[in-house]
Amino acid sequence: MNDPPVAVPHEDTDAAFRALYAEHGPALLRLTTTLTSGDRGRAEDLVQETMLRAWTHRDNLDIEHRSPQAWLITVARHLAVDAHRARHSRPPEGKLDENLAFADSHPIHARVDEVGLRAAIATLPGPQRRALTEVYYGDRSPAETARILRIPPGTVRSRIFYGLRALRRALTAHDATA
After folding, report:
1. Could you tell me if 142 and 135 are in contact, meaning their C-beta atoms sit under 8 angstroms apart?
2. CATH number corresponding to 114-177
3. What is the DSSP letter of 91?
4. Dihedral of CA 74/80/81/82: which sign?
5. 169 Cα distance to chain centroid
6. Angle at 89 between CA 88 and CA 91, to 5 degrees
7. Whole-angstrom Cα distance, residue 144 to residue 135?
8. What is the pLDDT along the chain (178 residues), one digit of tens a residue?
9. Rounded to an integer, what distance in angstroms lies between the CA atom of residue 4 and that of residue 23?
10. Helix (H, G, I), strand (E, B) or coil at 3
11. Which of 18, 76, 77, 145 is the least buried, fewest Cβ under 10 Å from its Cβ?
12. How many CB atoms lie within 10 A of CB 114?
């Protein structure tokens, strides 16, 4: 029969994790630095997250009787792979040029009918449509929109940039057929 876990005093747990970090932290940092192509900041974040996972799973880890090194390395590698995938799943961030000139065929005072504009907005991908709607119809800044959508401000600016470009194309095509 398995005995139920014994409650360990808080000080003992803290000391055990300080010792765990002292013993395995440097090796994890070397590993994660390699996994992040030398990016020390990201590597430190991965080590911190690995140790946080060890802390949250401390009841399942038997660090007093068995070395958790293999578990820590596996967690760090999985976190590095997840972070790499997350970075590459986002579109590249672009800079928003707010001083874009209008095309020669579209003077600044040109008016767009509301029905055509709504139809063009409806053709945009959801993330771009949401960012444009929050900024232009919600009268929010990219930073406010980023907080609402829970994405980085650079991503909001990128979505606005590409959304406006796609909107411009759709409206140009609409004008050509009208």
Report:
1. yes
2. 1.10.10.10
3. P
4. positive
5. 29
6. 85
7. 9
8. 454 444 445 567 778 788 888 989 999 999 999 999 898 999 999 999 999 888 888 777 766 667 788 889 999 999 999 888 887 776 666 665 555 554 444 444 455 567 777 888 888 898 999 998 888 888 888 999 999 999 998 999 999 999 999 888 888 876 666 6
9. 28
10. coil
11. 18
12. 8
Residue type, 100: L
Torsion of CA 85, 91, 94, 99, to 10 degrees: -160
Structural contact between residues 156 and 142, judged by C-beta atoms closer than 8 angstroms? yes
- Where exactly does CATH 1.10.1740.10 map onto the chain? 10-89
Cα(105)–Cα(110) distance, rounded to whole angstroms? 9
Are the beta carbons of 72 and 50 closer than 8 angstroms? yes
The DSSP secondary structure of 92-117, one letter per residue, reads: PP----TTPPPPTTS-TT----HHHH
Q: Which CATH architecture has domain 10-89?
A: Orthogonal Bundle (1.10)
Amino acid of residue 172: T
Which residue in 85, 174, 80, 96 sits closest to 128, CA to CA? 96
